[in-house]
Every structure is written in structure tokens, then in C-alpha cells.
């Protein structure tokens, strides 16, 4: 294969990845507003592609939902180190990452119901979620504790579970502000003067 052929192949792969990312971002946005049962035509319109393109990449709705879920887990994981590098403090990076995590939790509503018939598939996704996000959260917690900004006896799984529990029911009760309560939780991680 010539250098020109290799470059063209890489360019096609990069285009395919970009197209898939656009499609997954569009699907996630539609899922947030309309739920995971939203018509595929709505997702195609938001992504600016034909419905055939979606079905070519994701033959079933479950395939699309799983891909969106994994895409969002990956994006949340990638944001952790980026925030740590760009934020004013490790605590600020942690706070901003938790905001992204809350956004992620909002977009996954309905996933469990769709995958109930495939319990093993759901367990695989949950394992992927934990294996990917717990280390990122741990790194942020360690950095903030190392900077003496938060208490040092917290485990990432505890924090993620607490945040997740605070998000339960946020979509079904307009009187409940999960983001506000998560903010209270994260503020409570800080050292108290006195």
C-alpha cells in the first residue's frame, strides 16, 4: 500500500469516526428531550443524515442506545484529565466533572427498560460504566485530597453512587432539583474551617 493509499484510508476512518460521533451526539440529544423510544427519523434529522445511515451503523434500537451510552461514558471519562489540567484547582475540576456526570445520568434514562430482555447486556454496560468512570473519579478525588481541598477518606464508588442516587426521580418531579442537591453534596466534601 502506498503512502497516498494509507493517508486516504486514515482520512476515511477519521471521517467515519466523526460521522459516528455526530450521529451519537444527535441521538443523545434526542434521547434527553424525547426518551430512548424517540423515532429514528428524529435522530436522523438532528444528525443531518438519512435513516439508512443510522440503520447501517446500528441495525437495532438497542444497538444505538448501547452505542450512545458507551459514547457518553467515554466522553465523561476523557473530560476528567482535561478538567484536571485546565481548572483552577483539583476541587474545581472535580465539581465540573460531577456536573458532566449528572448530565450523563440524565441522558441514560430509559436504558434499563429497553435492555430488560437482555440482562447480561445491561450487566456488561454497568461493568463498563464502573470500570471506566470509577478510576477517573478516584483520580479527581485523590488530586483534590492531595491539594488538601477535600477530605481524604472518600472512595470514588461512594461519591458516584451518592450522585446517582440524588439524580433518581429528577425527571419525574419538577419540584425536585437534583443538580442543586448534588451541588450541596459536592460542597460538603470540602474541609470545614473551625
Q: What is this structure, in a nutshell?
A:
The chain is mainly alpha-helical and 194 residues long. It is 75% helix and 0% strand.
Key structural traits:
single chain; 194 residues; mainly alpha; 9 helices; 75% helix; 0% strand; globular
Explain this structure to me?
- The protein has 194 residues and is mainly alpha-helical.
- The protein is built from nine helices and no strands.
- Helix 5 packs antiparallel against helix 9.
- The longest helix has 32 residues.
- It starts with a helix and ends in a 7-residue tail after the last helix.
Instruction: Provide the residue-averaged pLDDT.
Output: 85
Q: Bin the helical content.
A: over 70%
Order of secondary-structure elements: HHHHHHHHH
Largest sheet: none
Radius of gyration: 19 Å
- What is the terminal-to-terminal distance? 69 Å
Outline, from the CA principal axes? globular
Q: In terms of structural class, how would the helical and strand content be classed?
A: mainly alpha
Low-confidence stretches: none
How many DSSP-defined strands?
0
**Given the structure, what is the number of helices?**
9
Strand content: under 5%
Topology, element by element:
Layout: H1 3-34, H2 40-47, H3 51-57, H4 61-86, H5 90-107, H6 111-114, H7 119-146, H8 156-167, H9 178-187
Helix pairs in contact: 1-2, 1-4, 4-5, 4-7, 5-7, 5-9, 7-8, 8-9
Amino acid at each position: 500500500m502506498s503512502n497516498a493509499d494509507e493517508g486516504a484510508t486514515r482520512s476515511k476512518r477519521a471521517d467515519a469516526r466523526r460521522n459516528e460521533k455526530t450521529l451519537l451526539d444527535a441521538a443523545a440529544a434526542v434521547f434527553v428531550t424525547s426518551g430512548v423510544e424517540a423515532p429514528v427519523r428524529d435522530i436522523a434529522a438532528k444528525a443531518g443524515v438519512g435513516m439508512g445511515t443510522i440503520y447501517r451503523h446500528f441495525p437495532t434500537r438497542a444497538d444505538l442506545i448501547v452505542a450512545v451510552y458507551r459514547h457518553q461514558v467515554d466522553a465523561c471519562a476523557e473530560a476528567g484529565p482535561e478538567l484536571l489540567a485546565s481548572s483552577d484547582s483539583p476541587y474545581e475540576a472535580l465539581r465540573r466533572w460531577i456536573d458532566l456526570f449528572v448530565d450523563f445520568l440524565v441522558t441514560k434514562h430509559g436504558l434499563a427498560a429497553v435492555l430488560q430482555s437482555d440482562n447480561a447486556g445491561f450487566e456488561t454496560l454497568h461493568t463498563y460504566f464502573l470500570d471506566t468512570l470509577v478510576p477517573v473519579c478516584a483520580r479527581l478525588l485523590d488530586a483534590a485530597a492531595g491539594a488538601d481541598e477535600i477530605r481524604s477518606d472518600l472512595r470514588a464508588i461512594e461519591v458516584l453512587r451518592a450522585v446517582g442516587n440524588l439524580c433518581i426521580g429528577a425527571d419525574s418531579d419538577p419540584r425536585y432539583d437534583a443538580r442543586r442537591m448534588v451541588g450541596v453534596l459536592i460542597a460538603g466534601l470540602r474541609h470545614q474551617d473551625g
